[in-house]
């Protein structure tokens, strides 16, 4: 997961919070010193340890003080204080909590920290930096990515958030699509794989958070899609995305196969033969199935590796060893094997992220019906974080599990209240 010009270790220390749904009508974050966040002081041994706790609310003064404390430069862009309305639960949350993600092992993301990678919400206030004119104002509806989003509020650099791409999107729906999910699949398919119209793509874990949006993005680009899943109920989810809305049928050359069954590669090849192809052009692998995928990839095909969810597990259970490839297989089919880390790309080549977001926003603005949210369940309040993460751990979740922190209406009301307080404070100082 990426955020701009600050680093995960900085943002994990900016405390964020969330209130339970039962208390939505009583949330007054503009007057509270404390709020709730899914904050961990150390790596967990059991998901029972994951819960919302009271932490200090973030403010610009503490944010800038933390920059100084960590000997980090002041951002060259405005800072934005956001009331979070919705946050989504991701597989990476499980890995981070257990300390088994590569970012944990590299020291980039270590306790104490607040979980959560993506959010939507309403701007409370903006802090100009170096005289730069802010592009956001109080009351703006936004979505974005940063660490620490399982919370009530967050402070992020302006580049970490975006205006809603289309007025038809709700904050709930845009959170379900996810600023830390949709861009990953979009970047993998466009920037890395170069997927084009008429090609066939094999999307592994096609009912998962990254997968359901990869399926839709590929369709929007004019490609044909074959998805893999691990259960029948997830197969139904992907089939619903592939069916022609007019005929109710899945077009030739497309379909869903169960990769928990032996010989699934032959089913993929059979689907390709329906349209006269000897294999898929592109594979999008977030599971760890490269070796078997090569068998059903056409000559000169591309395989994009963006994760190993099927081998790293969900943090607590014993994991499978990572794949060991026979490189002659890559040579014989002249396969292009490509890796993609969205967060690391943003840290090393932020200009690539800007370019990618430009293309993604164009798609969402002009073709809003081509990509739509796929929601497993919406939980009312952070008190349900454990329930959601348990469902994710047991692989029950398809699409996204969303947590509603507060309603759009209440967040807008709070933004107005916050703005009124700021104006009154400014007048009193005159």
TrEMBL record:
Q: Which domain of life is it from?
A: Eukaryota
Q: Which GO terms describe its cellular component?
A: mitochondrion
- Which residue range or ranges hold the Enoyl reductase (ER) domain? 65-403
Gene Ontology terms, MF aspect: oxidoreductase activity; zinc ion binding
Q: Which InterPro entries does the record cross-reference, listed alphabetically?
A: ADH-like_C, ADH-like_N, ER, GroES-like_sf, NAD(P)-bd_dom_sf, Quin_OxRdtase/zeta-crystal_CS, Zn-ADH-like_protein
User: Which PANTHER family does this entry report, sorted A to Z?
Assistant: QUINONE OXIDOREDUCTASE-LIKE PROTEIN 2, SHORT-CHAIN DEHYDROGENASE/REDUCTASE
Protein name as catalogued = Enoyl reductase (ER) domain-containing protein
